[in-house]
User: What shape does this take?
Amino acid sequence: MDETVIRIENVVKTYPVGIEVFKALRGVSLEVKKGAFMSIVGPSGSGKTTLLNLIGGLDTPTEGSIFFYDKKLSHMTRKEMSAYRRDNIGFIFQSYNLLPVYTVYENVLFPLLVMGKREGDVRKSVEDMVARVGLAECANKRPNQLSGGQCQRVAIARALVKRPPIALADEPTANLDAENSRQILELMTELNREMKTVFILSTHDERVSKFVTREVKLEDGMISQDNLMDGLK
Amino acid sequence: MFKWNILGVLRDRTRSVFPLTVVAVGVALTVVLIGFMDGIIGGMIQSTANLDTGSLRMVNKAYYEEEHLFPMDRALAGQTESGKWLKSHSPEEVTWSARIRWGALLDIPDKEGMTLSQTPIIGTALDLLSSGSEEIHRLQLTESLVQGRLPVSPKEMLVGYQLAETLNLKLGQRATLLGQTFDGALAADNYIIVGFVKFGLTALDKKMALIDLKDAQDSFYMEDIVTDWLGWVPPGFDIEKLELIKNELTDSASDWIKTPPASWSPDDRPIFLTVLDQRGLGAIYKKFKAVRAVIIGVFIFLMILVLWNAGILNGIHRYGELGLRLAMGESHAQISFSLVTEAFAIGIIGAVIGAIVGAGCTLYLQVKGLDMGNNLAQTGLMLNDVVRARLSWRGVWGGMIPGILSGVLGSWVASLAIYKRSTSNLFRELENE
Ligand SMILES: Nc1ncnc2c1ncn2[C@@H]1O[C@H](COP(=O)(O)OP(=O)(O)OP(=O)(O)O)[C@@H](O)[C@H]1O
Ligand SMILES: [Mg+2]
Assistant: This one.
């Protein structure tokens, strides 16, 4: 049996909307095992992003608790949360969020600098990571010189260069065409197998289903289905 | 990380060129403004000192008390000895010259030598003839001459051009001065009018005559006697230090009068004044300083607002980057620190550029001056037509410090905004960009 990396227990998340509160998540429980490659699907507004933000330590649950191994996230100070994100989470965004003034190489280097690494010590691993996502040629280009698919590859390299236990991808293929989506998902699958990184994807995209080994359906802030899948053979 | 930030600053012009320009322009303008204001008041004080009061002045107490009457008999004897004493008891920067203020009747004779017209005038006797005298330069006599020439031999006289007009004086004309001698007798002596001068001050141009010091001592029987010892400091000298020199001189003089020069009368007592003690200049200076403080304060406040806003705008412009950095696990404190450090670095560089440009412009205005035409001559103050700026360290710091601080403050406020927003919200906003 694989270790549990993330354990979510009865999590409720409410947002104040005017004088009322809006329940984005209403009692979600979930365990994520080491090496998982899973997706969270559901209609718009069902709470996918909210859930990813909680796992990623960008937000805290209103009720319930989230554990990273045996560490309880809701007990952490803001500073500890920063350190948790820094050391354990790689984020991949729908709109890539690359820094436009930096080159591909520098964008991928950045998370390691945040971790306090010196460029000289990590140059090789950054270059390897850039090459691994197939962009060795483009290492010195700026994001505006790249296609959408290439940008998302940079974002994946940036998320994984520090070899985090968890990669969170919020709608990673929403801005990509079918061919690029497929390539990106394949790349993530491969990296998941190579690095044993947990991938949690949120998506509307039906096509993602064939790539994942588990699919959690959210509806109205609650889990309505939790299916094991075949994944990519 | 440091290098990474520098790269960002260099590549992102909204992070470098824009704030740098704002800081530099703000600082430069402030430096020029301060220099200009200092120049106006400084110029006014300097002209008054040069023409009339000296930066420092030693005068017999008894004379000073009835100064408006030109009481020649109260002038201070022992000119030579006093000169030596002053030289040895004042700082090196101060140069001293003796002058005699006098009042007399100017008598213009007709061809037969009978009085054609007579008018009371006031005058100053100063060293016009000895080579190397600084007085000609000090009064800018060469520049002020509207007609004729400067005196080159004894008993030649310069008169104000309006006085010359009123009395219909001609160059080369003979005029008699009727005045009072040191011992109270009537003095009468003939002078040749050789030039008309214009100081741009009605009071002087209507009533003023200038003669050589030795001539005056001869005409008024004042051998080795003068009414005034005037001391001057070099341009840019801190006017508020004059008070210190004055106090030191006053202290030293209390010893001096225990063994006074033999030629002094028993109640002779030299007193010391600064330019601000005379002609109401102290009060004007105070008011001017207050007005200057307000104007400069408003200006600096505006600059702070602009820079502050620039700092905040910069923070907003980089919202995406900041959100991302938070997601990557940089702490709020680290991000604030790097924003503020960056603003500080930009502030320093911008302020240095601004200070250099501002100081350059100020220096240009100091050397070339700004011709205000006749506008100022009518004010009755001893203002020159040409206003010169005055560069000082105070002016440079006065521009630089707010320039640096306001940018830093601005980005500090911007970084507070990051603190206030919860991480996920910052992030949502980032996603929605
Ligand atoms: N900070 C917030 N304040 C108020 N309401 C919020 C906030 N964040 C999310 N919500 C609301 O919570 C609900 C769930 O939002 P969430 O972004 O998690 O949905 P989602 O499943 O990711 O939707 P989508 O597919 O459109 O991205 C939505 O109705 C949203 O409007
Ligand atoms: Mg979403």
